[in-house]
């Protein structure tokens, strides 16, 4: 366990548009990392699959060419970014683990550029426009926090954010903050009321994880419209709205729906201890009665 922790940390959020130009995406991410580090960020979080457009709108075997290896060029680039800027950096990648075996993987870099750890996305969606089961094998690491110089990070990825079990297991293993790199948006054909219901549900469930576990949540989404290359749908309009919530679900920052933004947010890491004293949810859990949670459904 790394011990040089602070009573508060400054988190940098990178909410960006992306293109099919990998080098351009990396260059803009690097500029954001540099700017946020200059503003005092200790920890910087990028959104999900930030190397490219969100390719899972279609099932196309050619898209496997986008995958990266660990270690490799991707990790070298972001390791250097973390080291040169003295920040802990949470990144997201399409990992080629072996021929025919791919994961949606978050990689965390320490301030010295070393890899602090990684997490492979456990919950894999398969919905119109989000055909991730075609590309990604569910993670086999489990829900294990990653120890860093800014604290023990409970890193999860996108679809994981709908599952209270994942957040709880990270908290029970000592995670001090939950982090969700994300790529989520609405169908442009939906009416405004439906769009806002979806966005508010996404925000609400994650704020609930903060409250139920008494720890902060950092959720970083991409933003902007990306067309469906197959033209089978109207594409996806990623709704941004990246946010940081405190341990009572309070907003510490909320980014816009339709614009890129890089922002630094300070989190009081001592506050979780106080909140858990006031609301001792972990104390009052009736663990002897929760066996049904390991079942798919209770008939």
Q: How is the secondary structure organized here?
A:
Blueprint lengths: L7 E8 L6 H17 L4 E3 L27 H13 L2 E11 L2 E9 L5 E6 L5 E2 L2 E2 L14 E3 L2 E5 L8 H9 L4 E6 L2 E2 L5 H22 L3 E5 L1 E4 L9 E4 L3 E3 L5 E4 L6 E8 L2 H8 L21
Parallel strand pairs: 1-2, 2-3, 9-10, 10-12
Antiparallel strand pairs: 1-17, 3-4, 4-5, 6-7, 8-9, 11-14, 12-15, 13-14, 15-16
CA radius of gyration: 18 Å
How large is the share of residues in beta strands?
Answer: 25-35%
Average pLDDT works out at 97
Structural class: alpha+beta
**Shape call:** globular
Low-pLDDT stretches: none
Q: Determine the oligomeric state from the structure.
A: single chain
The major sheet is characterized as: 6 strands, mixed
**Number of helical stretches of at least 4 residues:** 5
User: What is the distance, rounded to the nearest whole angstrom, between the alpha carbons of the first and last residues?
Assistant: 43 Å
- Strands, count: 17
- Give the helix level as a range of percent: 10-25%
How do the strands of the widest beta sheet line up side by side? 5-4-3-2-1-17
Task: Write a short abstract of this structure.
The chain is of the alpha+beta class and 299 residues long.
Describe the 3D structure.
The chain is an alpha+beta fold. It contains 5 helices and 17 strands. A 6-stranded mixed β-sheet has the order 5-4-3-2-1-17. A 6-stranded mixed β-sheet has the order 8-9-10-12-15-16, covered by helices on one side. Helix 3 packs parallel to helix 4. The chain is globular. 42% of the residues are buried.
